[in-house]
Design a protein that fits this description.
heterodimer; A: mainly alpha; 8 helices; about 85% helix; elongated; B: alpha/beta; Rossmann fold; four-stranded antiparallel β-sheet; 10 helices; 12 strands; globular
């Protein structure tokens, strides 16, 4: 089958339009009944509690590695005591939200795409519409709301755990004073840093969940189509999230510049 | 049951010059037909003739390129998706592959619509039992769809469709791929639903024997089984036939009329 450039352009424009409509309706659904609190809680459990082990593990060890790497550079300038500050600022402002976002994208965006994709190719979504239930309200909005909320929570946990990982390296390997590490880590954090660290996962959660749901609901072509949708969801969510990160950072720097 | 006790002959489904094409290939061309209240219309056609599409159009799951579709007095071809949800609650649909929610057990599948309507739990339990008893599967309540046979899944899908006592039922090849015994069980359920609850229905199938069984049998509530109409009786099963060929209607009429049709295509279809 051959496709012209026009066909490809049309398909892509249509995909952007369908994604935009899904993303918009996922928010608009919050303002009209029925609202599915039970489904939202269930998804929060799956996304939040389910992602907790990988977020804690990756956060802890990344914090430890960051302390180890940065200590080497800081020691050259006699600034080893700033290790805590470097770990906390890097993690809270940037690495924490992005790392947690990538972990949740890998786990939940793919989960959403495969679950909704399977429902789509086996006509379960059509069945839901036939039964008088709006799949956008029942399936999409609970996933979006719970991902947004849980990603913020998971990012905070990741930030704390990564600082603990950094502290472990600072105390046991670099022989730094623990109290000094924690005091520099805490004191260096300003309102702007924390705001930046909380706004980013809010946006990333929305991107991850809407992309996961979009690829699931638009899956076609049986099990192969579900597999394709799952891979595309993971890749698109990660890439778009990282690209968006650049623009959000630039925007937020206007409001919360480095001190 | 008194056949003269038919409800008013108001149209339940009206298709007027409905056409739809995919990638410039016409799938339905100027299709027009009317389903009256209390009637069952059987849509025949080979695979790809556009039968399933007719059901999806009637339910508003898809939109025609041209023409008008009126279901239960509302023009579905001009309604927004948001407004269609209320109408769909008045219609029951049985999908070809059952389309049961595979992460829910039989009880939750059958009660899905009632839960959405926030029906009290006591009433839900009672109605699920009644619906499953109707399809003789009350013992499967806690099983998941993957634990059921193909025929059982179709019967659960029928129970899910009828639990809210819809005004219209749409069946998409409910006997496709089933063995003859299970097919007869399913057909008996359709006849039971038609004769006991007097629900209007649009049935898509490519199995002639099922359609003729529906047209020539009635459900006897005393014996609790389907029985053939005795010769000479004036019973009208209210079942008519519509044949599609390449998306075009080539026949519409009764069982007797289709059996005596002069159309070469239909005669070939009947003799296969």
């Amino acid at each position: 089958m051959q496709f012209s450039l026009t066909d490809i352009a049309k398909r892509n424009v249509l995909a952007v339009q369908e994604y935009s409509l899904l993303a918009w309706s996922s928010i608009a659904n919050l303002f009209s009944s029925p609202r599915y609190f039970g489904d939202t809680l269930q998804q929060a459990d799956i996304i939040g509690v389910g992602s907790l082990p990988i977020v804690i593990l990756t956060g802890f060890f990344l914090g430890a590695v960051l302390a180890l790497q940065s200590a080497n550079s800081l020691a050259r300038f006699g600034g080893l005591s700033f290790t805590g500050q470097l770990v906390s600022l890097s993690m809270v402002r940037e690495i924490g939200p992005v790392l947690t976002g990538l972990m949740v994208a890998g786990r939940s965006a793919t989960g959403m795409a495969s679950e909704l994709g399977s429902m789509q190719v086996t006509e379960q979504i059509d069945a839901m519409r036939a039964l008088g239930t709006d799949p956008s309200k029942k399936l999409v909005t609970p996933r979006v709301v719970s991902t947004v909320i849980m990603l913020v929570v998971l990012t905070v946990i990741s930030d704390l755990v990564s600082m603990a990982g950094g502290a472990m390296v600072a105390v046991f390997m670099l022989r730094l004073d623990g109290n000094q590490y924690w005091s520099t880590a805490w004191q260096s954090l300003g309102v702007g840093d924390i705001a930046m660290g909380l706004i980013k996962p809010f946006v990333f959660g929305f991107i991850i969940s809407t992309i996961g749901c979009y690829y699931g609901i638009s899956a076609r072509g049986g099990t192969q189509g579900v597999g394709r949708a799952t891979t595309q969801a993971m890749v698109s969510a990660s890439v778009i999230m990282v690209i968006t990160d650049l623009f959000i950072t630039q925007l937020l720097l206007n409001f919360f510049p480095f001190k | 049951m008194d056949p003269s006790n038919n409800n008013s002959h108001e149209p339940v489904i009206v298709f007027e010059d409905v056409s739809i094409a995919f990638d410039e290939k016409k799938v339905l061309t100027n299709l027009s037909f009317t389903l009256l209240h209390g009637q069952t219309k059987v849509l025949f056609g080979v695979a790809g003739a556009g039968k399933t599409l007719v059901l999806k159009l009637a339910l508003g799951l898809m939109r025609p390129d041209s023409g008008r579709i009126v279901v239960l007095g509302q023009e579905v071809s001009a309604m927004k998706e948001h407004d269609l949800f209320a109408l769909r609650k008045r219609i029951g649909m049985v999908f070809q592959e059952s389309a049961l929610f595979d992460s829910l057990n039989v009880e939750d599948n059958v009660s899905f619509r009632l839960r959405e309507e926030r029906t009290p739990m006591d009433e839900i339990t009672q109605r699920v039992e009644d619906a499953l008893r109707f399809v003789e599967l009350e013992h499967t309540m806690k099983l998941f769809p993957s634990e059921l046979s193909g025929g059982m899944r179709r019967r659960v899908a029928i129970a899910r469709a009828i639990i809210t006592e819809p005004e219209l039922l749409l069946y998409d090849s409910p006997t496709a791929g089933l063995d003859p015994v299970t097919s007869t069980t399913i057909v008996e359920l359709l006849v039971k639903q038609r004769d006991v609850n007097r629900t209007s229905a649009l049935l898509v199938t490519h199995r002639l024997q099922d359609a003729f069984t529906m047209a020539t049998h009635v459900f006897d509530s005393k014996q609790n089984k389907m029985v053939p109409v005795a010769p000479g009786t004036d019973w009208d099963s209210n079942t008519s036939f519509l044949v599609l060929k390449d998306g075009v209607k080539i026949f519409e009429g009764s069982a007797a009329e289709i059996a005596n049709s002069d159309s070469e295509y239909i005669r070939e279809y009947l003799t296969q």
